Amino acid sequence: MDVTVIADSTDDGLTPVTAQLVGAATSIGGNPTVLCPGGVGASEAASISGVSKVISVEGDCFGTYEGGAWATALDSQATGDLVLAAASPRGRDIAASLAALRKIPIIQDATGLEVGLVVSRPIYSGKAMETSNVEGPCVITLRANAFDAAPDGGTSEVSTVNQSADVGLAVKEAIAKASERLDVTEADIIISGGRGMGEPSNFSHLNEVADMIGAAVGASRAAVDTWEEIPHSMQVGQTGKTVTPSLYIAVGISGAIQHLAGMKTSKYIVAINKDPDAPIFGVADYGIVATWEDALPALKTELAKL
Amino acid sequence: MRRGLLNASRVKRGGASWQRSFALRGRDRSDMAYEALDFYDIDALLTEEEKMVRDMVRDWVDKEVIPNIEDACRDGIFPDKWRVDLGEMGILGAPLKGYGCPGLSYIAYGLICQELERGDSGVRSFASVQGSLAMYPIWDFGSEEQKNHYLPRMASGELIGCFGLTEPDYGSNPGDMITRAEDKGDYYLLNGAKMWITNGTIADLAVVWAKLDGVIRGFIVEKDDPGFSAPEMTGKHSLKASVTSELVFQDCMIPKDRILPGVKGLKGPFSCLNNARYGISWGAVGAAQSCFNSTKEYALSRIQFGHPIASFQLIQNKLSWMLREITKAQLLAYHLGKKKDDGTWIPEHISLAKMNNVDIALEIARMSRDIHGANGILDEYPIMRHMANLESVKTYEGTHDIHNLILGRHITGIQSFTREP
Amino acid sequence: MAIGVLLKQVPDTTAKIGVSGGRVDESAVSKWSMSPYDEYALESALKLKESGGGDVVAITCGPARAGKMLTDAAAVGADTLMHVQIDSHDSIDSTQIQSILAAALERAGCNVVFCGKQAADTNGGSTGPGVAMLMGASCVSHVSEVSADAGGYLALRASSGGDERVHVSAPCVFAFDKGSEELRRPNVRGIMMAKKKVIETVSPEDLGVSMGESRVTVVSHSPPPEKPPGQKFEGADSVATVVSKLRDEANVI
Ligand SMILES: Cc1cc2nc3c(=O)[nH]c(=O)nc-3n(C[C@H](O)[C@H](O)[C@H](O)COP(=O)(O)OP(=O)(O)OC[C@H]3O[C@@H](n4cnc5c(N)ncnc54)[C@H](O)[C@@H]3O)c2cc1C
Ligand SMILES: Cc1cc2nc3c(=O)[nH]c(=O)nc-3n(C[C@H](O)[C@H](O)[C@H](O)COP(=O)(O)OP(=O)(O)OC[C@H]3O[C@@H](n4cnc5c(N)ncnc54)[C@H](O)[C@@H]3O)c2cc1C
User: Phi-psi bin for A126: left (phi > 0), alpha (psi -120 to 50), beta?
Assistant: First the structure.
C-alpha cells in the first residue's frame, strides 16, 4: 500500500514526528513516500529507514505559509490511499486542506492506527477515546510521540519537483514572541514551586524549565503567602486556581489537601521533593526524591536533549 | 479568596491584592462549573429567556463577585465596577416596563436576586434597593416628567438611588416617623433624619418618605440639594460590601416638582417593600445554595476518625435537612413568582416567603459553619459571610417577627402590632 | 456584507464525560456550551461588523439541542441564525460536514467566515481549512485578531517565531485561536431580542447537499486508558528516566 507522508518541519529542519509518521506507515504495511514542503529536511528524510522515496516539493508558495496553498502544491505528488501528517498546528491545517481538496475524509490527532483502517484518538480533551473505521482513501494526522519512530539508516532517493500554487495572503509584519508568561489556567504544562524553593528568587529555575517546554509557572499557597514576589494569580489549589494540564510538575510542595484540590485531576503529575514521605508522592505518577537543587539542573539537561 | 489566618507572615495586604484579584478576571474555563442545587428540577419550569438571564447573572457572579468579594468586605466598599456591570447587563429594575427598564417577568427578577445573593447579600441589596425601592416608586407613583427624567438613567446604572424610610427611633413602626416636609409655596422644606439607608452615601437621589401635613408622602431628594447630607455608617459586621448611611435633612430645600404625586400614606413605602421582599425570598435561596455546596464538598473531603465526616449520620442528617429546606424554599419562591406574574398575590404571601426563606437560609448558614469546623470561621469559605449577612436580611424589609404579626393578623383578623386599638 | 460564523455546541469543558454502552453518554452531559474558540471567532466577527457594518450570520450544523447556542449568539449580537439539523455528529464524516457548512455559507451569501481553530469535543481542526478549500477561499489559521484593511482584512496569526500580521482578501476563512479581545457579556436587551429571532432550520437536502454514506464509522467510545500506578525514584539521577517516561509512556512532552 502506498502511503504519502507529509514531513513535519520547522525552519531548522524535520521534527522528530516525521520519523514517527514513517514508523506508523510501515507498521501497517505501508510503503511511505515522504513529501517535504519547500524542500525542508529532504536529505534528513532520506536517511529514515523504511522510506521508499522522498520528494522535495519546491515552489514560490512555500515562502509564505498558507495551508490551502501548500496542500494544493503537494496534491499532485501525493499518491496512494492514505496520507499521513503530523497533528501539529501546520500539519493539521495542511492535512485538512488536502482532504477537502480531494474530497476524502480526515481524522485528526490519532494515537492508534491498525490495518483496516482502524483509527483511535482521544476526544473531549482526553476524557474519552474514540475508535473508528475508515473505508477508502483518507488523510490522518498523528499525535507526536504516540507512535514508534522509524530508525535512522535509510538511503532512499530524493527527487525534486517544482510545484507551486496561488497564495492568497501576504505577510505584512512579523512580531517576535513576547516572552509573556502563560497563565496557569491556560497552560498544558505547569511547573509549580512551593515553600521548599527556599527563596522567591529560586523561582527563576522554574521559569527556565518552563521556557523550555512552554509551561506556565504556578505556586503553592505557602509560597504566595510568604513571598511578595509570588502573586496570587500563580496560586494553585482550593483557594487559588483549579487546573487540569496534561502535565503538572510540583517542586518543593508537600501536597496538602488544599493544594491537591486544585491540581489532582491533572493528567500526569511529577513530584520533586526531598522528603520521601511527602504526601504529594501519593498522587504523583512519577516521583523523584531529591532536592530541587539537584533535580532541576538534571531536568534542564534532559529536556534540552528532546 | 486569598489570605488566611494560617500564616503568621501576612506580608501583603490592601490595595495591591485588590488590583491583583481584578486581574484574575477572564474566562477561567478550568474552574469547575457552579452546579446549583435544584432537587425538584425548578429549571424545567423556567422559560428559555429566564434561563438565559439567570445564566448571564450566574456567570457574572462567578467572574466578578466571588473572586473579589472578600476584598470588598474587608475594605467595606461596594466596587463601582459592579454598578457599571449591573447597569450594562440591564437587570436593574428588572420587572418594570417602559422608560428604559428591562420589563422581565417576576420569575426572572427572582432568579437575578437568587444568583446575586449566591455571591453576596450586599450585591443583591444594591439591586433590590435600586430596582424595588428607588425605581419602583418613581415608576408607580411618579409624574411623567419624573419617570422620563430618572428611570432610564437608573436602569442603566448611571444614577444610583436609595430609599429612606427607617428612622433612628422608628423601625418596625415607620408610621410614627418624625421627618417632616413643609410646603413653603415655591419649595418644600424637609427636616429630620433617616437611618440604616442602603446605598445612601453613594446615591445620586433618595426617595424619602416624610409627613406633609400629617400624611406620609414620597419626595425625591438629590444628592446636591441644600441642607441634605448622607454620612456613612461604619462598623458593620454584616453586609460589609454594602454601603449603609444616615440621611440628614436640615432645612433641606427641594423643588415642588419632586413630590411623588401618585400616592399618600403608608401604602407608598409598603408597595415598594412588597417587591423588594419578594426578591429577598429568592435571594435567600441563593445564599443557602452557596452554603450547601460548600458544606457538601467540605464534608466529603474532611476526614476525621478515619472517615469522611460526610459518612457520619449526624452530618448526613444536617445535609438532608438543608436539602429539604432549600427545596421547599425554592418551591415557595417559584410559586410566589407565578402569583406575582399573574397578579393573584396578596402581601401576606410575600411575608410568608420572605420570613421562611431567610429563616432557613440563616439556619443553613449556621449549620454549615458548624460542619466546616474551625475552617468555617475563615473568609476562605463563604459561610461566615453569608451567615453574618443573613442576620441583616432577617431584620430589614420587615423583621422576621413583624412578618409573623402580619400573618397573625391575616389569620385572626386581630392586629397585635400595638396595644392601642 | 454577510459575515459568516461557524459555531459548534459541545459539552462544557468543565462537564464530566461518561461512556456507557460503548458510546459517550450525551444525556449525562450537565451543560452544553459554545465551543470556546468559536466564542472568540464570534466576538471578532461582531467587532468587524461594528467597525465596518454588515450582518453576522451564525451557522451551526448539529442536533436539535444546538439551537439554544444560536440564541445565545443572537443575545450578544448575531443578526441571522441558521441551523442545519442533523441527528448526530457520530454518523457523518468531515467531507459531509464541510459540504454542509460550505453550502450554508453560500446560501447566506457569506464570503468572509469566522470559526474556531478546533472544537472542544473532537479537538480536530479540520473545519476551517476544509470549508475554505471548498469555497475556494484562503484560510488563515491560529488567528487572534481580525480587522478590515485596504479592501481586505488584516489578521494576526501565530507563527513559529511569534506572531504575524497577514493581509488577505475575500473570500477568506479565519480559524480562531484564543482571541486577544475580552468576550462580551450578553445583556437583557440582547436576550429579549434573541428570543424574537427566528432560527432558520434547514436539512442538508434543503441546501442541496446529498449526504451519501459516511466513510468513517465510529466503532466505539471508551474511557481513557488507565494510568499505570505511581512510581517513585530515588535521587536526581532518576530525572533522565522520568523524562523519557513522560515522553514515551505519558506522551506529554
Ligand atoms: C482553607 C485553606 C485553603 C487553602 N488553600 C490552598 C491553596 O489554594 N493552595 C495551596 O497550595 N495551599 C492552600 N492551603 C494551604 C495548604 O494547607 C498548605 O499549607 C500549603 O499548600 C503548603 O504549601 P507548600 O507545600 O509549598 O509548603 P510546605 O507544606 O511547607 O512544604 C514544603 C515542601 O518542600 C519540601 N522541600 C523543602 N526543601 C526542599 C528542597 N530543597 N528540594 C525539594 N523539596 C524541598 C519539603 O519536604 C516539603 O514537603 C490552604 C489552607 C487552608 C486551611
Ligand atoms: C444593613 C441594613 C440595611 C438597611 N437598609 C434600609 C434602607 O435602605 N431603607 C430603610 O428605610 N431601612 C433600611 N434598614 C432598616 C430596617 O428596615 C430596619 O432595621 C427594620 O425595619 C427594623 O427596624 P429596627 O432596626 O428599628 O428594629 P425594631 O423595630 O426596633 O425591632 C427590634 C426587635 O423588636 C421586634 N418588634 C418590633 N415591634 C414588635 C412588635 N409589635 N411585636 C413583637 N416584636 C416586635 C422586632 O421584630 C425586632 O426583633 C436597613 C437595615 C439594615 C440592618
Answer: left
The share of chain C scoring above pLDDT 90, in percent, equals: 78
β-pairing verdict for C110-116 and C172-176: parallel
Same CATH topology for A2-142 and A164-304? yes
Domain boundaries, chain A: 2-142, 164-304
Question: Does residue B271's CB lie within 6 angstroms of at least one atom of ligand 2?
Answer: no
**C227-238 confidence digits (pLDDT tens):** 778 999 999 999
Q: Among A163, A191, A156, which Cα is nearest to A46's?
A: A156
Q: Where does B267-412 sit in CATH, by number?
A: 1.20.140.10
User: How many Å apart are CA A116 and CA A120, to the nearest integer?
Assistant: 12
Neighbours of A176 (CB within 10 A): 8
Q: Which of B56, B82, B88 to mutate to test the interface with C (most CBs of C within 10 A)?
A: B56
B21 touches chain A (CB under 8 A): yes
Segments of chain B assigned to CATH 1.20.140.10: 267-412
* CATH 3.40.50.150 describes domain A164-304: no
- CB atoms under 10 Å from CB of B11, counted, come to 10
Q: Which three cell numbers stand for residue B156?
A: 442603566
Residue B117 annotated to the active site: no
- Measured between alpha carbons, how far is A202 from B329 in angstroms, rounded to an integer? 53
Alpha carbon distance B204, A65 (integer Å): 57
Q: C188 vs B30: CB contact, 8 Å cut-off?
A: no
B12-155 is classed CATH 3.30.200.20: no
**C12-25 confidence digits (pLDDT tens):** 887 889 999 999 99
Q: Among C69, C184, C191, pick the best mutation site for testing chain B contact (most B Cβ within 10 A).
A: C191
A 93-152 residues with CB < 8 A to C: 93-97, 99-101, 103-109, 111, 118, 122-136, 138, 143-146
With CB atoms and an 8 Å threshold, state whether C218 touches A130.
Answer: yes
Closest-CA residue to B265 (of B185, B169, B165, B348): B165
For residue C130, give the nearest of C105, C157, C164 by alpha carbon: C105
Q: Does domain A2-142 have CATH number 3.40.50.620?
A: yes
User: B166: Cβ below 6 Å to ligand 2?
Assistant: yes
Q: Is the peptide bond between A101 and the residue preceding it cis, with omega within 30 degrees of 0? A: no
ipTM for the assembly: 0.93
Closest ligand (CA of B235): 2
Q: What is the mean pLDDT of each run of 10 residues along chain A (306 residues)?
A: 94 89 96 96 95 96 95 95 95 97 96 94 89 96 90 93 95 80 85 97 96 94 94 88 90 92 90 95 95 97 91
The pLDDT of B278-284, averaged and rounded, is 98
pLDDT tens-place string over residues B198-214: 999 999 999 999 999 99
Cβ of A171 under 8 Å from any chain C Cβ? yes
- Of the CATH numbers 3.30.390.50, 3.30.230.80, 2.40.110.10, 1.10.10.10, which one belongs to the domain with range B161-258? 2.40.110.10
For ligand 2, whether the C-beta of B262 sits within 6 Å is no
